[in-house]
User: Fold these one by one.
Assistant:
Number 1:
Amino acid sequence: MIKASLFATCLGDNFFAEACADTVRLLRHFGVEVDFPEGQTCCGQPAFNAGHRGDAERMARHTETVFAESEYVVLPSGSCASMMRAHYPGLLSGEETPGDSARVWELCQFLVHVLGVESIGSGLEGRTVAYHHGCHALRELGIEHEPVTLLRSAGASVLDWEADRECCGFGGLFSAKMPEVSASMADRKLETLPDVDVVTSSDGGCLLQLSGRAERRGGSPPFRHVASLLWQGASP
Amino acid sequence: MSHVNPGAYREAAARSLRDTPEVRGSVGSATRTFEASRTRAFAPIDGDRWRDWARDVKTHTLLNLDQYLEQAVERLEANGVHVHWAEKDVDALRVLDDIVERHGVRTAVKAKSMLSEELGVNEHLERLGVEPVETDLGEYIIQLLGEPPSHIVGPAIHKSLDECRALFHDHLGTPLDGTPERLAAAAREALRARFLGAELGISGGNFLAADTGTVALIENEGNIRLSTSIPNVHVAFVGIEKVVPTLEDVAGFLQITARSATGQPIGLFVSLIQGPRKADEVDGPEEVHVVLVDNGRTNALADEAAWEALRCVRCGACLNSCPVYRQTGGHAYGWTYSGPIGAILAPAMLGLERAMPLPHASSLCGACVDVCPVRIPIPDILLHWRERAVEAGLTPLGERAGSGMYASLAARPRAFEGAGAMLRHTPWRQTGRTLPVLGSWAQERDMPRPSAKSFRQLWKEGIE
């Protein structure tokens, strides 16, 4: 049996708790033994991206210690997975025992490439979905078809969205340092959004940015984490 | 350049979005068109191999810059070109003083050149009593408006067709519903007389081949050809990073630059400046000057990360792909070079303190990396400057303290959990507007709702 540790991430733990629970359900559904190392906190990405390298290093070291025994680390977040895979090796290059970044996976990528899942179920029949590609998932992890393929396998119609690969404007502290430009970037996403039942993404940060802006503008489809949609798709 | 003010980026960007929302429309539509053209132009070629080649040639040249510059100067002088070295902008501008006086220059026609913008050539010419005439259509438009360029390749990218119609109606008497062709024809006619009457032609240089001493220029309108061949004197301002080893390299760079900039296989006109008119030639200037400009470039070269930005060929592809640039165009950046490339060059060339907060004018989305023809690792260099800014104490104290506190919390899971519980049990969604970071968030968006229970709690209760 494959064993995997869930890294809920700080945003997931506090803002997408149900999506994290759905991540556990999905993984178990496909035969994974899931554990949750309780010492986990934050991967350090917000500090890293704002230039606070020392702070990011502390958080990276802590996270590596927490997951030291894990065979796989699975995250319902493309950008945090990317932080660990793409940036931990450089950040912790001075460490004696750097973690193996290849064991870190974003959820959809893990389902498709490690578990070999091709089809999820049929729980999304008749649903129309718009999928937002988080930048780090797309460009640093190369996740492009996996979430869309899984959603479609469950019966969802994933509609074309002109701006689906454009940045939502979140960017961690960027959203607070340059709020006007950041919001304008979210507006571009919302202005081009097709008429769908639900908007989804593998990244909680992007979803908070888009839904927060949509609420401010008034009237929008619901935003849900892809883990929850996929679990809905897999549910009998 | 006279109006360098990157420090006001956030305010300028916000003002642009609030007061001139049509700029976002014009810039957005033009950059997306540029980007689509680039994508089409790269489809039939092995883009990765081209980009690897371009990166490697530029890197090799930068690592041996002194040697290639010496070779270039030797060949330029053998071709009969007057070569000048300029450490600072004032040194570059001073070259013009003597030329203007000796030749009694009253009008200078200018080929589009970002370096001349960086140096403030137009303002200097005016001080010398010379009228500078921009001859690139986009530059002509913004010169009439008295504005700096908003984009490296399309300087008037922030203007709509209707705004240009009104402008040309006022200045050239074209009808208010004139077609773009009609407007271009009117500009062409007005400029033709200026070309014929100018004593001095000024250009930049896209590339400088060290083995032949050739300055190469790319364009689509023919104005560079005229600016560099009709007037009796030609001055080319060339950044020292523009040198490449051979003319054969130039042949490759002309193609990848045009494909990246406008999606063309090559520019409609390529001018190869090989020195002044020879005895048996009928065209060309009698006197050619090449001014090799540093103006902060050796500072960039000495930086452990930012030196890679000197590979830049000024194609503008990173601007076209940048979702941040697309919201405002270039003026908000407060410097000649805007967008991602401007944000990484400014700290190296102007100094980090003066360039702040440009390294933060990016969400680090990485779209620029996908299109850069010389593979400049732009997000890595942005991060590098952000780290240097933290070290130099150029980030707000509150942010530094907050980041440190968060990192300390994150090392203590119990405390971290407690902080998460506070999210749920204090009315911060209402009070957050008064807090740092959260207040900025709340200015533009509704506050996120924390989950009713943390995942940690759900896990303890057992997940069915």
Number 2:
Amino acid sequence: MDLEQLMKIEIVVAGSKRAQQTRDVPSYVSVVTAADIREHGYRTLADVLRTLPGFYVSNDRNYSYVGVRGFSRPGDWNSRILLLLNGSRTNENLYDLAYIGEEFSVDVDLIERVEVIRGPSSALYGSNAYFAVINVVTRAGNSLAGTEITTSAASFGTYSGRASYGRAFENGLDLLVSGTYSDGKGRNLFYPEFDAPLTNNGFANDADHESFHKILVTASKGDFSFQANSVSREKGLPTASFGTIFNDKRNSTTDNLSLASLTYYRALSNGGSFSTRLHAGRYTYDGEYAYYANDPPNKDLAAGEWVGLEVDGARKIGARQFLTVGAEFRDNFKQLLTNFDPEPYVLYSELRNTSVREGVFAQDEIRLADPLLLYAGVRLDHYEGFGFATSPRLALIYTPTPATTFKLLAGRAFRAPNEHELFYVSPGYTSNPSLDPEHIETLELIVQHFIGGGIQISASAFQNRLTDLIERHLDPVSNLYVFENLESTHSRGLELGLEIDRGHGLAGQLSYSLQRTEDQETGARLTNSPAQMVQVQLRSPILGAVTASLDAQYMSDRLTIAGNVAGAHTLTNFSLFAPRTLGRFDLSATLYNVFGIRYSDPVPDGFVQDVIPQDGRSFRVRSTFHY
Amino acid sequence: MLLCGARLNAQDPMGESQVKAMFVYNFLKFVEWPVENTLGARDPFVVVIIGEGATADATEIFLASRAIGERPVFVRRIRWDHSLDGARAALIVERDPKKLRRVLDAAAAAGVLTIGEGEGFTTSGGIIALLVEDRKVRFDVDTSAAQLAGLRVSSKILALSHAVRSSTDRRGAQE
């Protein structure tokens, strides 16, 4: 917008609008910016999340799984986090999964910032806002002001390209259109568990390929904004998971997710606002599992479609209160799960379902005194399966000086059992339609302090109590895998952070996490739960506009399902970034796992392997052309 | 950092701080620096931010992915007593009049465009002050402060500014 247009904008007076400073948000918040992503060479949302205090990522060579504060369970496709794209839910309606790998909805190059809000937020968002809410905000067309073409080449025969166009037009329309395509051969992998002549001596060759394409369109004008996006990813499965034939290239999964939403946002006088969003989504999953050498693979299919409407309003009440109320309705008009052998045709299961969810919420923000802010919120959700769920939250924020903030947070959240957990049936797996929701209760104390010289320190102590966890286990009577409300767990932990921005170019973050997550009855430590983590990111200009960036993550050892240990490891990445070389090219080169550290991630049940080795040293080079 | 505490919205409201950030960006495009020729056409355009607050945060976010001509904008947050060397512009949020005076003196000496908030900013020697009037953002320009720093403010900015001041006389009267 130019100056003349800016002069005409009516603003919402600071302090009473809903866009807030992180200081006043009732949670421990992290923000990762476009500059962080560009300069550190992050490839996926998983690369972004693993740098955040308390977050870690594991991978089974198909999907990436995020762990939060010592908690990452087998058979959970990230259903315990809520992933938003510009405020609109991306978790689909069969597995509630949140994609964070290459299968994530948008190219990370298009991200303006990632806002991560830790702790349960069911009081505002309902199910899945369990450990964290992650909101990915995409760049406005205006920030491109023309065309961008990115090409990149990476290890394991991976080539990617992106073409984007965006601009703000004279009439106030902001438009962005972008498409990305990528194809990777993947690696030839060795699994000692299959080291026998009949299984190619443990080598899975040409079975690790990954290709995807993504489209994003956003348009906004005045109070209206529209977005539509689509992602399709195909991944080969080199691990012979779920008892399939080892080294069979037919093993693969294809995931497609398309989302669209139209949002109307109106700022009202006196700092209030009204907004409504109409959204729709479509998800399909096509798994091909080779069980038979001479017959076509078993098909594991899922298809979901939904529409939803969200309405909320906020207004100031008197001089000291700010009330937000809202309601949400979602119609899951298609929920299909099926498993069959195509030839000879054997149908193992076919579930066609529909469901409706409703939720209402209210939150009051009360300024008790000048430095003291109280949040009290509650949300009521209704599910056809099990009835009502209530999610309350209380937060007290105390800012004795502009440089210091204390936050005391308490909340309760739920996660409803998803369609997959309730109804999925295939050879070796049975359903449990009588599952109940699981719950989390949290208590957290946060201190943040600016000590000057561009340095901020923070500390958080938390306690999470989870009850009626929905988990898959092997039923000893039927000898079938089934989901049940099993254990209760207890986590305690401490996170310490240091952020530096010295002003003369050097910027960085250092964080340490100490946590213990255990079964409440037996006191046993949970699997895939590191006790300690250290994360560091540093960035500095080295030559003119060229920046060098380093990030490293240490994780202590983790137990596996079989009772073994996946060893402690440190992952180090190094990146160089040169903006506007020859006026029009952004160039970058990144070395991942610089020291070629060998490490493995624990995997869920359904694998012969107890741990899956991860990539050693790899690279990516890329160029972005601005026109 | 700007976040929606209540609900995260696809489109943030046009908050005061975001609008001010866009004004800051526009000012950068319409000021001429005397050292223009000594900088390469693609050298980074360094903007420093001194102080905390919503405007500082919004400006940092807004400028981070921008460019002035072919120069990428580099934003640095620094303390009031840090060197301004290499910076072309500074957004200053500092209430202590002594510190503010020292920053503004250093900025004038270094040829840095100074942008701040409130009428007091230009009367203290700052070049451009952002104001809010009738729920719209306005700005004042002090041309003599600009001249002191060796900067030329484009007539486009002057035409739109709320008030153009020449504070030389007043400053003389004060001292």
